[in-house]
Write a structure and sequence with these properties.
With 110 residues, the chain is mainly alpha-helical. It has one domain: Cytochrome c-like domain (Cytochrome Bc1 Complex, Chain D, domain 2), CATH 1.10.760.10. It has helices at 2-23, 30-36, 38-44, 66-78, 84-91, 95-107, and strands at residues 50-51, 56-57. It has a two-stranded antiparallel sheet with strand order 1-2. Helix 4 packs across helix 5 (84-91) and helix 4 runs antiparallel to helix 6. The chain is globular and about 40 Å long. The termini are far apart. 19% of the residues are buried.
C-alpha cells in the first residue's frame, strides 16, 4: 500500500515537472504575439470587458502573469479548461504561438 502511494506521488510530481518544463520551453516574442493575438483582442480588449450577446464578462488579460497565460492557453487547447470558443481558438495555436501571445499580453496594460 505504501509503495503504491509513493508511486502515485512520484508520478504526480513528474507530471507537474513536465508541465512546468513545457510551459517554459519557449521564450515568447511579444511583437509576434501582438500580430497573432489580433483575434484575441476582439474580446479581450473591448470596452468594459463584457460581450453584448450573449452577455458575459470577458477577462482582462493585459498585464496578466505570462506563465499563467501559457498555462491557461495550453489547458484550453488540451480541453482541460472548459470554454468552447477558447478551446477552438487554442486548437490552432502552436506552443510557440502560445508563448508569443502570453509574452504580448503580459507586457500589455502595464
Amino acid at each position: 500500500m505504501l509503495s503504491i502511494r509513493k508511486g502515485t506521488l512520484r508520478m504526480a510530481l513528474m507530471s507537474t515537472c513536465l508541465a512546468v518544463a513545457s510551459a517554459q520551453a519557449f521564450e515568447g516574442d511579444p511583437q509576434r504575439g501582438r500580430i497573432i493575438a489580433d483575434t484575441c483582442l476582439g474580446c479581450h480588449a473591448i470596452p468594459s470587458y463584457s460581450n453584448v450577446y450573449p452577455y458575459y464578462h470577458v477577462p482582462k488579460v493585459g498585464g496578466q502573469n505570462e506563465a499563467y497565460l501559457v498555462s491557461a492557453l495550453l489547458a484550453y487547447r488540451k480541453g482541460d479548461r472548459a470554454h468552447g470558443t477558447m478551446h477552438n481558438n487554442a486548437l490552432s495555436l502552436s506552443d510557440q504561438d502560445i508563448a508569443d501571445i502570453a509574452a504580448f499580453f503580459s507586457s500589455a496594460g502595464k
